[in-house]
Amino acid sequence: MLPVIHDVAREGGIRPERPIAVSSIAATFGITASPVSAAMAAMIVMFDGDGWDLPRIMAVAVPATLLGVLVAATVQSRVGKELGQDAEYLRRLAAGEIEAPAPAEAAPPLRPRARWSAYLFLGGTVAVVLSGLCPALRPETAKGPLSMPATIEILMMAVAALILLLCKVDAKRIPGTDVAKSGLVAVIGVFGLSWLGLSFIGANEARITGALGGVAQDHPWFFAIMLLLLSALLFSQATTTKALMPLGLALGIPAPLLIAMWPAVNGYFLLPTYGTFIAAINFDRTGTTRVGRFVVNQSFMLPGLVTTCVAVSTGFALVQIV
Do 135 and 98 share a structural domain? Predict the structure, then answer.
């Protein structure tokens, strides 16, 4: 989507940094609003016993995230000079490093049954949501209805199998696709970072609890800052959730407040080294999406901070009524 966003913005004379930066942030925050994400599965495991099942968590996470992204998009629409006045863009045009916008070409036709795969994936997502809303739809086990993490895994693996069987997918080409390559790298990275993060937190839990317990208990919002900072180092919402949410419970922070602060695990933007942000910078051939001299003055910082602050603040309000 990033190349499409860039081309559409540039052809319309819009500074590409504006939609690219906020779109990258929205994609990151979408993880904590998705019913099929690993981070959501981790939250369900930890908070289901406190009465916070999938529907209740989504009733907080989805509106809070949506409002945060909308506010960030509004703020981002006023960032920077207009494209025709940007010095770096004009320099690249004059130097011949990029060409003037060309008329849009017709999109290539979709592969046979490509729409089927999208419909199947959407159906799987709906099935996951319904399974969370109606536990009776899940198979019974000795301990009651099948857990949501296992349900998510079974349903989405079944959807993947149906896509392979019904959509005439060339299975030999799958390992060579960009999505498969990045997915495999992400899986390995998440496992490694999760191990590292959990090991660090586990080995130092007593010290962290002792040092931050009083502050977090007196000022629970401070825990959101911890989530934000550590997520920038762990590079995974699921890893940050698994590593820090149990610590929050150990500090005595009520479950509703932890759920309200959960969007803060999307702190990748603090250091623009995450793959999505690097790709966004490279895709923007106009040079408007960039990292500044001091690293922190980069294109993703403002929309990221705005989205986080609005989402967490909205979450604090929503947990009082959900």
Answer: no
